[in-house]
Structures are given as C-alpha cells and as structure tokens.
C-alpha cells in the first residue's frame, strides 16, 4: 500500500506568527493598544521640566483615544531614555494625519500688571517651552524691560536697599594731594600703590606687639658688649653671603626676642646668631644659604643637630611669628616722602645700622628709629628738617623724635671700638658713598632743629 504522508501542520485560521517589530518603522502593523500610565517606565529617571511638552503630547490622551499605535507608543517611551538635547528634536509622525505643532502658544503676561511680590511666582508659573528654561527667563526679562520703558506706566519696583556705612577699620584713608607719594607708581603693581599707606599703617600698629625692654638682667652669662660683638659679626656674614639688608635686621630682631625669653650661655651665643640668620634667610631671601654654610662660618664649632635643635627652639619660643616690623622698611618709605637722594638714604641707613649694636636703642620702635635716622641725615646734608609730609606718613612729631635722636647721637659720637669695625668699614666703601667718613652733625644744630 502506498504510504500516505502526514499533512503539514498549519497555523490556525486568523493567527499569525509574531515577528520582532522594529522600533520606528511606520509600515509596521498596529499592535494591541497599551494604555500608558502617567508615571515613567520602570527603571527610567524621574520627569524633568524639559520633557513636559513631549510627554503631554504623546501621553495618555492620544493613546487612550486610539490614535497612536503601539509602535508609536513605544517610540514615545524611548524619549525618557534620550538625552535632553535630542529630546527637543524628536518628531512623532502619526499615520493618516498631518504633523501638528506640539508646542502650545505661550500667552505673554505683562510684568507691569503683576505686583512685585508675585513676579517670582509669575516666572515659575509660565509654561516651559521646548527651548528650555533659558527661553522662559528671556521672555520674562523682555516683558519687564518693555514694562519699564512703556510711557505713562510706572512699574512696581522695590525700594533700593539702604547703603550701609563702611566700618572705620575698613575705610580707605584720605590722603591729601600734597601728601600723595604713591600715585606716581600706579603702573607698578609690585609697589602696591593702592594699598601702600594701609600696609605701612598696619606695620606701625603691629610694632606694639614686639616692643622689647632691656633684658640683660635675665642673661647671667651675657652683657651688652657681647651682644654688640655678635651683631658686628652678623654684619660680616651678611656681606660675605651678599644677603639683603632686611635679612640682617630681622636676624638681629629675632635674636633679641629670643634672648629676652631664654637664658643662653656665652658659648652658645654665636649659635643663636647663626640660627637667627638662617631663619631670616629662609624668610627674606630668594635663594637662602644652606645649613652647611652657616656651620662653616662658625668654624665648625657646632654640629648640624645642634643647629637644627636651636632652630626649632627659637621658632617655638617666638610662636612662629617672625614677621617683625624692622626699621629698614620704614626708612625707605620715609625717604621717599622727601624724595631723598641715594647718598642721603645711604647715610640714614648707616645711622640705622649702627643703632643695631647699641643696647639702649633696642626698646625703640622701628618706625620711630627710622624717623630719627632720616632726620639726622637730612640735617647732616643740610636738606631741611621734619616736614609736614613726613609727619603725615610717619605719625610722629619733632617732640616724639627728640629723645631717640639724642640717644642715637650719643652712640655715634662715642669713640670707635677696634673690635666693632664691620659697619664702619662697610659704609666707608665707594659703593656706599663713603658716608661713614662724613662728620657727624653737632648736637647744637640738632637741638635747634628740634626746638623750632
């Protein structure tokens, strides 16, 4: 018998084998109508303001009405996962219908017709367009400008805030034109012409924190002559290493402050001076000498560990506050007030440097000492006395300078010591205009200048 082949099994009538649908295909047959909920799909981020127009356009209203196919519904759902910039460019095409504008016209509201308190609410309540929040802000700003420029209408504006008075310590000092010495340097940012007066006023106030007294009664092993020998040696160190003058003055100041609080044996006095010069070099110099250089100038009398230990002890004793106002800075400032020449300034510097060795001048403030040295230099050069511009910038009168000038004149007129020759030899050089060889002004001339 012939073998009958079994018939091929076919799908039931009206049924079709489902095929994977391509997202975005307009020729795809409509699938089952799936109602889209107002909440974002599972795993999608929360709604953002920029998607309000798009989600409302393809939201439940169109899907529930049976206009949007399943494919287009899935296509709209992909907008949740697209970047914000791309979401503005997506256009949803509906078969059999013309493309309609998704954006709704924004009704312009005049800002002048809204009270001032409700303007913020107006900005928030305006519908957000597909251009984003930036377009919203521009619309509101344009309406406010039109309302402000509209004739016959006075927009409701808030009263201007009351101007607060600047505190006294923050006010810029009023400098009379005849006393202005910084405007000529307005193009030099390194001289800080806008803040020069405030800087030196601050340094002058800061001096009160570093006022010293005669501390030799606290040093049983030292005396004023030993201190003068140490300062004379520090001047030689400053010359050999070619350090700044500010480094020398700061080293002497730190030495005095350290000796006023810590007893030191005479064998360790040179180590204290070397350590002070090392710290001052780190603070003032661009390229400070290394530690081995300071051990070498001490003739290897101290070890490296001793120098490091003394440095730590000095910094802790001074509480790391080593920005001490020195007379050298004030001297250059005051010499600029009278436009003193370099030879006159160098003579004043010689007097100021000689004052470092005198123990009686240690308690004097740096600004007062600099003023006395400059006045002595001006009288020696017969360039006048204490002028109003010097009184304005220094804050001192002649009566304030008289006691310091008398002490300084007595120290300079004393017979020279053969052991203390470093400063005199230094300022006897042609580089320093040989100011150490100039005769000292008479005391009678000083008294006459101070009395007038």
UniProtKB/TrEMBL annotation:
Residues 232-316, 329-410 form the Cyclin-like domain. Keywords: Cell cycle, Cell division, Cyclin. Interacts with the CDK1 protein kinase to form a serine/threonine kinase holoenzyme complex also known as maturation promoting factor (MPF). The cyclin subunit imparts substrate specificity to the complex. PANTHER family: CYCLINS. InterPro entries: Cyclin (IPR039361), Cyclin-like_dom (IPR013763), Cyclin-like_sf (IPR036915), Cyclin_A/B-like (IPR046965), Cyclin_C-dom (IPR004367), Cyclin_N (IPR006671). GO terms for molecular function: cyclin-dependent protein serine/threonine kinase regulator activity. Essential for the control of the cell cycle at the G2/M (mitosis) transition. SMART domains: CYCLIN, Cyclin_C. GO terms for biological process: cell division; mitotic cell cycle phase transition. SUPFAM superfamilies: Cyclin-like (SSF47954). This is G2/mitotic-specific cyclin-B2. Residues 325-441 form the Cyclin C-terminal domain. The keyword Magnesium does not apply. Belongs to the cyclin family. Cyclin AB subfamily. Residues 1-48, 63-168 are annotated as: Disordered. It holds the Pfam family Cyclin_N. It comes from Takifugu rubripes (Japanese pufferfish).
């Amino acid at each position: 018998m012939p073998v009958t082949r079994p018939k091929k099994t076919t799908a039931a009538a009206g049924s079709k084998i489902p095929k994977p649908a391509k997202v975005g295909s307009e020729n795809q047959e409509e699938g089952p109508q799936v109602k889209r909920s107002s909440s974002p799909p599972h795993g999608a981020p929360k709604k953002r303001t920029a998607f309000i127009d798009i989600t409302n356009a393809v939201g439940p209203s169109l899907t529930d009405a049976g206009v949007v196919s399943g494919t287009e519904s899935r296509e709209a759902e992909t907008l949740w996962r697209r970047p914000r910039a791309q979401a503005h460019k997506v256009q949803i095409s509906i078969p059999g219908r013309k493309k309609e504008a998704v954006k709704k016209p924004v009704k312009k509201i005049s800002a002048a017709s809204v009270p001032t308190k409700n303007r913020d609410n107006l900005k928030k309540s305006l519908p957000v367009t597909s251009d984003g929040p930036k377009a919203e802000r521009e619309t509101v700003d344009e309406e406010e400008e039109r309302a402000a420029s509209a004739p016959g209408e006075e927009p409701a504006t808030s009263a201007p805030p009351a101007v607060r008075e600047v505190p006294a310590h923050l006010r810029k000092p009023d400098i009379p034109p005849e006393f202005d010495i910084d405007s000529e340097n307005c193009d030099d940012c390194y001289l800080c012409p806008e803040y020069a007066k405030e800087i030196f006023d601050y340094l002058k106030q800061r001096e009160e924190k570093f006022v010293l007294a005669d501390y030799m009664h606290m040093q049983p092993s030292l005396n004023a002559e030993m201190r003068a020998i140490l300062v004379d040696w520090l001047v030689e160190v400053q010359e050999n290493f070619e350090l700044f003058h500010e480094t020398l003055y700061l080293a002497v100041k730190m030495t005095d402050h350290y000796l006023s609080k810590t007893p030191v044996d005479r064998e360790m006095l040179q180590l204290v001076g070397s350590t002070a010069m090392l710290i001052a070099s780190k603070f003032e110099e661009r390229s400070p000498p290394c530690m081995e250089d300071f051990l070498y100038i001490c003739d290897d009398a101290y070890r490296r560990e001793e120098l490091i230990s003394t440095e730590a002890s000095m910094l802790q004793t001074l509480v790391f506050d080593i920005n001490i106002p020195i007379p050298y800075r004030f001297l250059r400032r005051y010499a600029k007030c009278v436009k003193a020449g370099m030879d006159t300034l160098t003579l004043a510097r010689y007097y100021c440097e000689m004052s470092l060795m005198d123990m009686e001048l240690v308690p004097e403030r740096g600004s007062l000492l600099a003023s006395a040295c400059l006045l002595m230099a001006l009288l020696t050069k017969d360039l006048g006395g204490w002028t109003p511009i010097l009184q304005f910038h220094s804050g001192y009168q002649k009566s304030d300078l008289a006691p310091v000038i008398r002490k300084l004149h007595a120290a300079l007129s004393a017979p020279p010591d053969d052991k203390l020759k470093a400063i005199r030899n230094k300022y006897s050089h042609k580089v320093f205009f040989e100011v150490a060889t100039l005769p000292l002004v008479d005391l009678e001339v000083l008294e006459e200048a101070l009395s007038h």
